[in-house]
Structure formats: structure tokens, C-alpha cells
Amino acid sequence: MQWPAMEQISAMVSLPQGFHLELLRRSDIPKLIESIARWHPDIAVGGGSCYLRASFYDEQVYLAGEAEKNILVALFRHGDEMVGMWSWEQEPDALMLYARLIIIAPEYRSAKLASAVIPMAEAAGRAMGAEFFFALATLKIPHMQHALEAAGWQLIGFTSGYDREQVAPGVVKRVFEGVYCMVLVPGDELVSPDPRNLTPRVQALFDVLFPGVAAAPRLPAAEGAS
């Protein structure tokens, strides 16, 4: 998969007046690291802490004017001021995208930038040939949950201890997060599981998450199979 140009991505979304998106440049990295630490102090621990390390951008992030890599960081600007960031990761072999992180400066959160850009994820994903998009949403506050649900993403479960957060000063624990997805292919391209291969607990949860999904048709046994 190839990342769409930032001009293409920007054309897919209508941001509030005065805001725009641009691809992260190497010269922006020190300012972005300083800003993330200020906007979201809790990020110092856990999976998002890599965004505080310059080596992470050097090794893994696609930067403007440089070779493409599997992680993209887009900056939100209000005029010339950096006011937020949004990062995706692609898994080319699976034709999959992961919405890794979005952070908005506290003084600009009332602009609802996350709600404005999440709906364009589907269009951007299709433009680059992705077939599946997923995101993890914190359960500490409901803002990302609301934004994903309003954009039509499906809640498909919870992680129990996937990431670490500072839950009190000096106290770090593993936390629950919500798992949301957007499938970018028609329903007839999904293969439903054969009930014979599901335990009762798996079948019960599948029926709750995907009500009305028909069981996969039974295929004839291969010749010589018992």
C-alpha cells in the first residue's frame, strides 16, 4: 500500500475554518515531542511513549520529502501554530490500517478535530487499497468512543491489559481499552466461521457482536478425509 498525498487526505475532510493538516517534517520533530509531552503528560508511559523519542521518528515514521515508511504522522495546524497530531500505521501484507494515536492541544479540543477527521479514514483507506481499519479507544474518557461511533465504526470488544497508563501520580497499571473497527470491503468478501469450529462461549459472543451474520456454508470434506 502507498500513503495518499497529504493534499488528497486534506481534500477528503472539512476541518473547521483556520485549521489544516500537513505531513510531519524532520524539522518539526523536536517541537512535536515537546508539544505531545505538554498536551498529554500521561503518555510518558505505555505504548504511546514512543512518540516522545526522536529515534522513533528517525527509524519508523514517514517524513515529508523522505522515503515512505509504515507509520504516518499528520500535524494539525491553526495558521502556523501546531495544535495536534494524528498517526496511522499500515500493515501492507494484511491490507490493514491502525489508527495509532490522535492528540489535540487542550485549548483546541472544543474544535472537535478528531470528530472532523475520523469520517475520512474510510475514504483515505480505500484510496490506498486498505481493507480493514481498527483503533483502540481509552475508557478513561468517552470522547474518542463518541467520535468513532458517530463515524460508524463498530465496537468489537475490549483489551484487558493491552497497554499501560499512569492511573494516579506515580502509579502505573495495565488498563482496559475499547477495540473499534471499520471494514472497507463488501460483506460478501467476509467468510463467516463454521459453528463446528467455535466453542459455545465463542459462539455466544460472536452472536452478540455480529447478530444476523449467517454461519458459513459447510464445504464438502476433502477426498480421503475422515
Count of DSSP H/I helices: 7
Assign the CATH class.
Alpha Beta
- CATH third-tier fold name: Aminopeptidase
**Structural class determined from secondary elements:** alpha+beta
What gross morphology would you assign?
A: globular
> In the CATH classification, which architecture applies?
3-Layer(aba) Sandwich
Notes on the protein architecture:
- It is a single chain.
- The protein is an alpha+beta fold.
- It has a single domain, classed as Aminopeptidase (3-Layer(aba) Sandwich), CATH 3.40.630.
- 24% of the residues lie in helices and 31% in strands.
- It contains seven helices and eight strands, in the order H-E-H-H-E-E-E-E-H-H-E-H-E-E-H.
- Strands 1, 2, 3, 4, 5, 6, 7 and 8 form an eight-stranded mixed β-sheet that branches.
- The longest helix has 11 residues, at 29-39.
- It starts with 5 loop residues before the first helix and ends in a 17-residue tail after the last helix.
- The mean pLDDT is 90.
